[in-house]
Every structure is written in structure tokens, then in C-alpha cells.
Amino acid sequence: MWTPGPEILTVEEMNEVDRLAASSGVPTLTLMENAGRKVANEIAKRWSPCRTTVFCGPGNNGGDGYVVARHLQARGYEVEVIAIGDIKSLKGDAAAMAAEWKGKSRPFNPSEPIHGGLIVDAIFGAGLNRGLSPELSQLFEDIHMADVPVVAIDVPSGVCGDKAKFIGDGQPWTAALTITFYRKKPAHVLYPGRQHCGEIVCVDIGIPDGMLDVGGHRGACVENTVPPRLGTLDPTAHKYHRGHCIVVSGPASATGAARLAARGALRTGAGLVTVVGEASALPVLSASLTSIMVREAATPAALQALLTDKRFNTIVIGPGNGIGQPTRERVAVALSSEAMTVLDADALTSFAESPDALIKLLTQRCVLTPHEGEFERVFPGVLAQAANKIDAARVAAKRAGAVVLLKGPDTVIADPSGRAAVNTNAPATLATAGSGDVLAGIIAGLLAQGMSPFDAARLGAFLHGTCGRLAGPGLIAEDLADLLPQALDGSWKSRVSAH
User: Fold this and answer.
1) pLDDT at residue 492 in the model
2) Is residue 300 domain-shared with residue 374, that is, in the same domain?
3) C-alpha distances out from residue 93 to 62, 65, 66, 69, 104, Å
4) What is the chain's Cα-based Rg?
5) N or C, fewer C-beta in 10 Å, the chain?
């Protein structure tokens, strides 16, 4: 059975794949026929024959629609095609497929009502770079109000495949099902585009194997559905072989974030974890931590002295640390050591007034884990200027010379070389206080055991999402670490789907 690869392709990259497929001997007309037939197959799996309206646009997306109409009609659906634009202006494959359609057809008239139990949107594909006309925007709003399901071909019309959002001032709308071809695009994995796609299915249309290798796209950006895994534990290893992680705590009134990170690191498999902080925080830490050690290191100098012991191979700094000069100094100490470093929360915000000062300190041993607000403080203007979140994370990672994990419902991980991954398994319940602190600890626990920063960030994000799905409604951050053993051994697969 064919399954799509994890690669996420831009519109331009997908066009290049289509070109390469055609040059390898696969007629583009065959690809269009296959696409329309596969869309009809997916529709038939979900809806019984019914009165169906297929909206066909002026390009190849419209050509796909004519094929869908033909195959649905052959399956017993009562199909009407409504053409957007002059059908006589169609060219190439789209014109050929329109000529094959012998059923009901009429031009689009905004004043005429739309009837039926199912709509197929074959108006515009992922390459659209302008907003929907007011008439089309109103059309989809009317369809929504009538509660008629819409099947979108490639992306819902109005969504830009690369920007992953609706363009212009039209009212966004949501498909019940979106069917795309060969590989997903940014709009299928990034919000808000992903939210408007409904169920997403990627189908095989006969593009030969190897097109990504020829085009040079393989692995540049992937959906994080199959992240790297930790190796099998050496039965002769002891705890020091699995790394010793330091988590820097905040003051006595703010130790919770460090404790969450520490438990995440330990549950992920770090051999030892020590939380360090000022003397007044130690009683609070000691009272709530058992297998995690506690040690005083109140000043940057004390932290520096601690890190001369090379057995401390990983450090988490930022959660609950407070914003200001003391945190900046501790960050500088951590980054000057040989330890792998996870920078989160206050470790990033403390440099909001001087982000370049942080950039100069960073090394390839770092993972930065900002949410969008923290990202803007360290990389001002990058999100606004980038085509999408993937591009923003790539720009930031290259600028930082370190791995950047840009958090959200569509967390993106990027490294300085341009590799990127989009995590798509995180439930909305992870948007809760302390969740990101646990993620920082998980990544640190993986780094402590020898994973590379990029792989640790990828696997950490996936495990974090899996724990969230295992917890279900009512999740609080304290739940996450205790679910890591199930997430790590894969026992969740029998109860939680990957998407």
C-alpha cells in the first residue's frame, strides 16, 4: 500500500516534481486523470451517492474537478459542474478534461442558488497568490451557513499553499476534507491553513519514485511523524553513561518550572538530574524532589565552578529564572561551558533589549525553545517577514548558528543547515502552564544521552505531543513526565493515532 513520504514541499517544489515526472515519461494528462479519480475514490469512501456540485476553476485545479465529476457520475452521483470563468479560456490538460465532461454544466452566477448534499471545490489550487473575489467568498459563506460539506482539491480555495493562510479580506472557510497529491505542502501542516483543511488525505497519482532525489528536495523539510529514536540501552552501562543534566531553578517562590523540566529530563532517560539554585530555594526543591538531586549554585560564578565537572554534560536554563542581568550572566556561563544547553523562557526574554548579545554567545551545542512571543524578542521582525513559520525558523537557526524549536500547535524545528521538521501530533490541551518547561527538560534528557541537538528537538517535540494525547482532557503539566515511559516504548500506538 502506498504511503506518502514525510517531505513537505512548497508550491514551487511540487511544480518541479510534476515537471520531472513529465520529463521522465509520465504524461501530465495521466497525472490529472489519476488525481481526479483518486479524489472521487476518497469521496466515495465517505459519502453515498448524492446530488453533488463540482466548482471548476480556470486552471489545472479546475481540470481535476472535471475528472472528479466524471468519475462521481459513473458511481451514481447526480453531478452538476459550475464553471468559474469562461470554459472556453481553459488550456492544455484542463481544456481536454473539460471536453470529456458530458453531464450538466453551467457558468457560475452568484444570484443562482446552489443545490445538493455535497460540494467539490476545484476552483483554485495551492499556488493562489490573491484573495477570493467577494462573490466567491460569499459563496463559501453561504455553503457554510447551509451546512453542506465541502471537499477541497489540493487546498481550500483562497488558501495560499506556502503561506498557509487565506489571502485578502475574504471570510475564511473550512473544508470537511482536503485531498492533496504526492506530498503535503505547508498549508497542510501549519496553522491557520491546516485548521481550514479539515481531514487531510494525501494520495498517489503515479509520480515515479526518485523525483525528490532528482529535484534535490528530499529531507529539506519533513513532517515529524517518524522522528529519530533513542538507541537501545547498553546493558552494561551505568547512570553516568546516560548523562547528568543540570536544571537552573528560579528563586524560592518560582521553583515549579525547574522542577517540571527536571522531571522531564529524568523520565526521558538522563542518568542523573540536579536542580541548582540559591540557598533559599533548596528547602522547597528538596521537599518536592526525590530521585532528583538539589545543589546550591546561587551565583554565575558558582554555576561556572560546577560546570568544570565535565560529567555535567547538559544544562537547562530559563524556566522560572526571572528576567534580567543575573539570568543573562548565567546564560553566558552555560554557553561558555562544554555542556549541551537548552535555552527557554526567561533565558531568551532576558535578552529582549539586546538580542545580538545572545546571538554572539550561542554555539552549535544549543537548542532554543521559544514560543512566538519569545521568538520575536530574540529574532525581531523575522516572523512577519517570512513566508511562513518554517522559513522563519530556518532564518532564525541560521542567524543563531543553533537549533531553533519554534513552539506552537505546529511546532517547527530547524537547524543552521536549513533542515526543518514540523510537529503535527500536539493536541490543544498542551496549551497549559508549565507544558513548555517539561518540553525543555525532555530535550535536555535526550541531549544528555548523546542525541544531536536537531534530533533531540525533533524527538522531544514528538514525545511531548504524544504525552499530551495520552493524557487527554484535563491535562496539566505535571501529568506529562509520568507518561513519558509509554511514549518512549511506543505502547501508546495501540490507543492513540499518530495524527
Assistant:
1) 54
2) yes
3) 10, 12, 11, 15, 20
4) 26
5) N
* SS3 category, 216: coil
Q: Read off the pLDDT of each residue in 117-122 and give the average, rounded to a whole number.
A: 98
Same domain, 263 and 210: no
In a domain, 3, yes or no: no
pLDDT tens figures, 135-162: 999 999 999 999 999 999 999 999 999 9
List pLDDT tens digits, range 223-272: 999 899 887 777 878 888 899 999 999 999 999 999 999 999 999 999 99
pLDDT digit string (tens) for 311-365? 999 999 999 999 999 999 999 999 999 999 999 999 999 999 999 999 999 999 9
First and final C-alpha spacing in the chain: 19
Same domain, 394 and 474: yes
* 53 residue type, one letter: T
Last residue of a domain, one of 162, 188, 218: 218
Residue 230 lies in a domain: no
CATH at residue 118:
3.40.50.10260
**Residue whose C-alpha is closest to residue 429's, from 409, 410, 413:** 409
Contacts of 347 (CB under 8 A, 6+ apart): 317, 318, 321, 327, 330, 331
* Residue 427: domain span: 240-487
One domain for residues 51 and 151: yes
Length in residues, the chain: 499
Place of cell 511544480: 15
The greatest distance separating any two alpha carbons of the chain, rounded to the nearest whole angstrom, comes to 82
**Who's near 381: CB < 8 A, 6+ residues apart?**
none
Q: What is the CATH number of the domain that holds 398?
A: 3.40.1190.20
Q: Which residues of 291-303 are buried (b: 16+ CB within 10 A; e: fewer)?
A: ebbbeebbebebb
Same domain, 415 and 309: yes
Let me know if residue 459 belongs to a domain. Answer: yes
- At 411 the pLDDT is 98
pLDDT per residue as tens digits for the range 391-408:
999 999 999 999 999 999
Q: Are residues 248 and 188 in the same domain?
A: no
